[in-house]
Amino acid sequence: MDEKDTKEKIMDTAERLFAQDGIKETSVREITAKAETHLASVNYHFGSKDGLIRAVLARRTEPLNRERLRLLETFEIEAKNKPVDLELILYALFSPSIKFCLNFPDFMQLAGRMLSEPDKEIRRVFVSQFEDVFLRFKAALRKSFSTMPEKELLWRMHFLAGAMIHTVTNHLAIESLSGGLCTLSEEKEVLERLIGFCSAGLRAPIRTERRRKS
Question: What is the model's pLDDT at position 48?
Fold first, then answer.
């Protein structure tokens, strides 16, 4: 096995074990044993366990984010400096995620673990992978909702991100509860429903806060 194959096998194994057992619970020794390589290979290719974690994340999130931004840029060019239709913005954000989940189920299980992980540093490392995408999509949404208060827009983006993440990381729950009626493999239908749900939330009237009477 050449060095490139060894590196890929280590990342494949780490991704699977991190997803199954958790990052902190999985040792480098266990990873290298399952990958049938030696401990020194992790230091050689990744520098440390932290370096391996970041490589496992980057290998999946970078192409995912590139596709999201490619789609968004395409729609922005077609819009010719006008606001992009909301449904197209959401399509650019959601569509790659659903395809990604179907292609890399181990990684999506890992993503769900990292987001629910009590270790703040692990969560921070995961969330940092999406900061540039967040800012680009926020700018696109700001064009569509030019008068919406900043705080309101941020909360609504938080809610739509939650809907997306729950859909792709916890889809087995709805599949089980529905007796197989609802499944992520119905990609087009799921995408249409998710876009419809989130676009309605983003367009919902802003309710003015009322002070409670004492």
Answer: 92
Q: Is 86:144 a contact under the CB 8 Å cutoff?
A: yes
Q: How confident is the model over 149-160, as a mean pLDDT? A: 95
Encode pLDDT of 49-91 as tens digits: 999 999 999 999 999 999 999 999 999 999 998 999 999 999 9
CA distance 73 to 86: 14
State both tokens at 40. Answer: 């020194």
Q: Global pTM?
A: 0.87
List the domain boundaries for the chain.
61-203
Distance CA 172, CA 168 (A): 9
What is the C-alpha separation between 164 and 98, in angstroms, rounded?
A: 9
Residue 117 pLDDT > 80: no
Location of structure tokens 């890399």: 104
Q: Say which CATH architecture domain 61-203 belongs to.
A: Orthogonal Bundle (1.10)
Say if CB 101 and CB 194 are below 8 A apart: no
Question: Other CB atoms closer than 10 Å to residue 163's CB: what's the count?
Answer: 14
What is the Cα–Cα distance from 65 to 100, expressed in whole angstroms? 11
Residue written as token pair 């280590």? 10
